[in-house]
Amino acid sequence: MTATLDLPLVAPQTWLPVVDEPLVCVDVRPVTHDVRTFVLRHPRGGRFVFEPGQHVTLTADLDTGPVERCYTIASPPTAPGTLELTVKRVPGGPVSGWLHDTVRAGTMLQVSGPYGVFTTSRHPAAKHLYLSAGSGITPLMSMTRDRRDRGDGADVVLVHNARTPDDIVFRAELQHLAEQVPGVRVVTICEADSAAETWTGPRGRLTLAHLLAAAPDLLEREVFTCGPAPYMAAARTLLAEAGADPARCHEESFDLGTPGPPPDDGPPAGPTYTVELRRSGRTLECGAGTSILGAAARAGLSLPSSCGEGVCGTCRSTLLEGTVDMEPAGGIRPREIAQQRILLCCATPTSDLVVDA
Question: 256-274 as b/e, with b when 16 or more CB fall inside 10 Å?
Answer without folding.
Answer: eeebeeeeeeeeeeeebbe
